[in-house]
From TrEMBL:
Stretches that traverse the bilayer: none
Record's keyword terms, sorted: Signal
Annotated signal peptide: 1-24
Compositional bias ranges of the Basic and acidic residues kind: 84-96, 139-155
Organism: Duganella margarita
Keyword hit for RNA-binding: no
Protein name as it appears in the record: DUF4124 domain-containing protein
Lineage, top ranks: Bacteria, Pseudomonadati, Pseudomonadota, Betaproteobacteria, Burkholderiales
Amino acid sequence: MKHRDFFLASLLSLLSAVAPSAWAQYLWVDDKGVKQLSDRPPPPNIPEKRILKAPGKPLFNPYAPAEPEPAAKPPAASAPTLAERNDDFNKRKLENAEAAQRAAAEARNKAQQATNCDAARKNQQAIDQGVRLSTFDQNGERSYMDDAQREDLRKNTQKVLAECK
């Protein structure tokens, strides 16, 4: 019986020594306004007035002097509503579609300009070679260019080639 009593006394003294550390809990309000409960102390950036419960700290002391409030901060912008986020998404989607259309139109213009430049280079080669050049009129009849017409074609082709560079 003595062993049993000794064992129980030892167990009770051990439990009473360990129990306060198990009861050590902290309660504080984080930056987002959410209450946090932990057996570890809050982060160092949490001010003392937001720590609601700590080992050795009373829960509430009505006789404690009131701490001065820090300078009022301007109210933070509230989080956007679902409708506002949806409007922003639709706006970005429309802007992206317009940008894609502009890019496609620009690519088509560049391709057309490259084709025009190739044709102008071929015309310039034909003019420089001195071969007889012909044109077709409204009736589909072929006529050959005289020197004045050839010179006009050469000037126009050079203007087009100047834009190609």
